[in-house]
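Morning - adenosine-5'-triphosphate inputs below, output right after.
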Amino acid sequence: MVVSTAGLVRHFRMKKTLVEAVRGVDIEIRDGELVALLGPNGAGKSTLFRMLTTLLPPTSGTATVAGCDIVKDPDGVRARIGYVGQNNSAGENYRIRDELVTQGRSHGMTRIDAAKRADEVLDQLDLTALAKRTPGTLSGGQRRRVDIAMGLMHRPRLLFLDEPSTGLDPQSRANIWDHILRLREELGMTLVLSTHYLEEADRMAERVVVIDHGRVIADGTPAQLKKDHETLDDVFLALTGRSIREEAA
Ligand SMILES: Nc1ncnc2c1ncn2[C@@H]1O[C@H](COP(=O)(O)OP(=O)(O)OP(=O)(O)O)[C@@H](O)[C@H]1O
């Protein structure tokens, strides 16, 4: 298993109230899978991602990611994974290629290796023509591709993408998906992404893990999940009495 969690919990204390963002998650993800975590806003997807990528320690429970324990060996996890967060793009005023080189250097690459690798990822994400531009001059979809390029610099085998298509117009969303699927097909990467777009999870993911109120409430291929229903929203409605579509709107 490339990701394995047991009873993962994360609470936040807000003044006197306790927010139970993640309430005991057990997930196993195999090498090479393309998994979508689907859930409405506030379901706990980002919190789960931030724990798996070692940005946030769990309140309790354990997880190993790419063979390393997230609490005991966070450096090991970070060396082996890429993380594309929401809006964590490169600095506004630096050229994209320079940002990528800096990213590579922060992973311990020599300047020459980082420059070579930057050219490779620019090519993979169709960004070569934009290499000298700054993120501030790019469209939303182009910026998202830069975010992905940043996450790929150190050649991780496992990439976490937090809502990679949120906020993009339909054409840019389709384009981002083309690139995500290419990473899967051409490089055989394991991809774990979160989304609240039902249709995307349904059409693109091999496996969908449905999260609600900090818990996994369903887990399977889209076809398995929909065996008694027409759409994934019907599945969510049957399980919770609510519609993701309405909550995401
Ligand atoms: N730093 C924090 N302090 C307090 N509460 C938090 C914090 N981060 C997240 N939460 C709360 O934890 C719950 C889960 O949030 P999270 O961002 O993980 O959900 P999500 O499924 O990623 O939602 P979205 O799709 O909107 O990003 C929410 O109730 C949120 O308000």
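Note: Residues 3-88+157-248 form a domain with the Rossmann fold fold (CATH 3.40.50.300).

O.
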